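Listing 4. Sequential folding, example run.
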Amino acid sequence: MHEIITLQLGHQANYLGTHFWNTQESYFTYAEDASPSPVDHNVHFRPGVGVDGGETFTPRTLIYDLKGGFGSMKKINALYEMAQDSDAGIPQGLWDKGMTIQREPLVEPIEYQRTLDTGLPPARLDPESVRYWSDFNKVFYHPRSSIQLNQYDLSSEIMPFESFGLGRDLFNRLNREHDLLDRDFRLFAEECDQMQGVQVLTSAEDAWGGFASEYVAALRDEYSKTGIMTWGLQDFGRVARAGKVRVTELKQEKQINHTVNLAYTLSSIVPLTSLYIPLGCPQSEFPGYVNLDPTLQWHKSALLSVAVETCTLPTRLRNTFGAGRLGKLDDLASLLNLNGGQKIATLSMTVHNANPSASRLSKPSVPGEEFGLSWDSGGYDVNGTAMGARGARGQESHIFAIAEVVRESNDDRARDVAAEASRLPDDHHEAILGRYLTSFTYPVIDSFPNIFSTDRIIPAEGTTAGGNQRLSVSARLTTSSQVIPRLKSIKNVVSRMVGVDEREAISNDLGEFIEGFETRWNSDSDDYDD
């Protein structure tokens, strides 16, 4: 068994994590005559015993959020809560006078959660009803999975949790008081027979980047040989809009602060992690088959979850035959980090046409079908102005390695997709390609928003994936020189906006990342200089 522990750091990360766990829960099969799921649930779920003595199965995850971020979700859920005597009162102890108890008003669960609790068919979710990530959560968590940080309030305007330094200081303060790895992480780690790695979901442009950086450093000190895959969430849409219109000085200042926070996060996390993937909605327009509201976290995180869940699918399958170097987190990182200095990968995805006879629409190479969910090759200057989709001077990119997972129910089309994907352009013939092909398509469950056009939805049939509608998806992680212009633009902001005490160290780190993507590449790297 090769277990993976997940860290979810921040409200944005918890939206993505909730979609991820809802999908994992849909892979369980309960009918006696149902075929066993191809997913090995022990990788991401831990067995336990509930309050009634019954067997439980809860995610191997730690969920950190600020005060007010958990919505209506209880820390002690139905699997573990004890029946309490309402007349028992509160022990008085040495105090025999009256007491006044003040409680903060509870967040009432929405209709969707109430129907789940009563076992009725779930009510329909709509954008107006989703206020928190817990509103569309379908999974019971272990009580020790949820950790609320009461030092800061969610969306506070008085003390916003925005600066990298705030997150770093908060972790260190809590770690001195409690030793967070001992208090939170070790319980889950010691239950693992052979932990293959840790996946970290975190915001990268605010204080959670600082919190995550210290957390990853503590993990690396304690588990020096364990693979760590970090997904750094960013709001690419905000940056894109800043490049298209003249923004106010306040927005410019906020964007610069986000970029500085990102620079600190990259400098701290990338050297310690096995693989770092920037993650966010694309800057360019979506393909025609994607219909989402970019202002809704429920929508954006759903789109991201399809790609994240797909490209990591081989790490949790029972039969990893054919997965090759994609079957374990460390193997995946080794495939993509070809020369030892390429720890930043970009993510892209294609959702195939549901019609098996659709001509060539399922192939990732068709223009407009595949879209990126990470940095493109463009950069941004200190004012947030776009430098162009191909870098400062329009250079072509160099691909080092690609890891692709193709989920396609139609065997003929699956072979076509795989064959097309293997035809790399002549100027990328040296790229390393790892691919896993499976007929296990992505389930579209009731907690998933309606963000894809009907021509992409495969109707439900039988008991496959719980009888849900499905998606045929290709997702790929790529290490390439496309990240160089973005790293250069971040470094440019650092050179102007970071204090002299820390400027040199961060700039040197970013310079080393850039150099890692220039290694063994024959193009003139000076072309990318500012």
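-- end of first protein; second protein begins --
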Amino acid sequence: MRNNANFIFEKSYIERSHHRCRQMGIEYSRIYSSRVLTDDFLQKKLAENRNLILSAEPFMNQLYNFVKGSNFFAILTDGEGCILSVIGDEEILSEAFELEMIPGASMAEAHIGTNAMGTAIAEGMPVQVSGKEHYIRAYHRWTCSAAPIRNPQGEIIGTLDLTGYSDLVHSHTLGMVVAAANAIEKMLEAKSYNDELTIAKKHIETIIDSIPAGILTSDLNGKIKAINKSVTEIFGYDEKEMHQMKIWHLFEGWTQVKDNLLGKSSFIDEDVYVNARKNKLQLNLSAYPIFDSEGILREITYVFKEVKRARKLATKIIGRQAIYTFDKIIGKNERFIQTIEYAKKIADSKSTILIMGESGTGKEIFAQSIHNYSNRKEEPFIAVNCGAIPRNLIESELFGYEEGAFTGARKGGNAGKFEMADGGTIFLDEIGEMPLDMQTNLLRVIEESTVIRVGGSKQIPVNVRIIAATNKDLRQEVEKGHFRKDLYYRLHVLPIYLSPLRERKDDIPLLIEYFMETLSRRLNKRPVEIPPAYMDHFIHHPWPGNIRELENLIELIINTEYIPLDIAAGQDHKKIPIAPVKESIFTLDQVEHQHILKVIKKYKGNISLTADALGIGRNTLYRKIEKYGIDCSDLDQLSTAEPPQLGNVVPF
């Protein structure tokens, strides 16, 4: 706000900036920024600026909506000029993409010459740079208007920029940017004050935020001190009657609640039986301690909610239930732990999360864990594999359909996955497989938070947090024309990259121990001890199938008590003696081949059911069918096929 309120329009700052660029030896012919962060470095930068990104996002969207359709794009940078977020129209985004104006690129003058963002940071004030005022020729077609964003201490922590073709930029464009930057500063300042007041306001906020749930407080002797209207409706007693009762008259287990809070433990989302006037009910209870100024527990606030059994059942039926949590994720690799901590920090964000990583790295496990760590954990978690749904069904699956929308449409219509996920999370796996026309519809849902059913015209509002995942390089898909640029930037707001197993070698022994214990217990077989010499080969194996491949291998070892030849021998077959033993033990490819045959036979050649049972996408299954030369139409031949005869294996 400080300098933003009194920015000036004179252009002496252009001369100063050009002088700095000449001193730094910036070339007029430069096209790309000389500094572009990627992968771990970019993810770290985004994590460091999480508060700025989340605070700026609504104002950045509002600013863009003013000029949407006029070939503008908005950019948010950090205090060093590194791009954190980009949104804009398709045509101009294409040009920006070609010039590497993407998250991670530095717009500081030292890396790309005079431009509104870098110059605003250098000058400490809002600036507008138009046409040839840009130091490099590549930007001469544009006018950029940027304002610095300062924290409550007055330090520049970022910039907000609006860029468009020079002939379309209005004289008030910079004023709009300054107003948005000021609003972001006020939001950051308010958030800072709110954080300081959180503890002091805890009692009041607990009560206000919990309405319309049933709320009451008691002292440590069980005397009821305060109640709200919902409590009387839930229990069936009037206010006078309840004040004459003790807290343990109302529900079973009060002693456990008090002991937990006295012992500094929590009591959150536990199902309890309550003694209502007419009958005994099961409710969900969370209890919160109220401390005095000396930190001594004085009272307890109880929040009663209805147990959402119907919703939980629906979640199990219409999507994979979110069963994984971060504490169930195995790993000690430093980079992997940092990824988990970053995922926890963004769990409550409303922004779209994009999880990237190779097949088998655990993208859905992360998605479920994020959901269960967020304030949406009691709401639906709907998983959709975009690569497994036939192209002609994906629109109705995602957005639903009205009665009569097509032949065979259910009477009364049908809700789509987005409606089913309302209030919760939708997980779009293999997002890179989504058809281009569906990408347009998805972009509308992200921008407008509404869906339109197939055959309908009514806009249905949905409150859904989107987590997308892909094993593809979406930037390359954009360059190939297979994925929309504007959707890519909308999805790439909060990216998470999951390292392949070969980059987490220190986690391999830990994962082997975990799989050996859990799988042997499930299979009712004894764990198999892996000799140290073989463990070394496990650690240095490339693991193209990542954690999923490792888990399948451990299951094979438990069942056969043999290590497949290609794993045991590593890259050098002379390292470990290989004894000729049973000829019925398969290599990994052969085990996979036989397993796919077995599942295809079980589901009578149905590709969708087979892929779902195997836990892979339809496209992946088709590739494996082609690889192994499987004829799904001849089920009789599949049922009589003999296992291939193999060569040597390595016994333990």
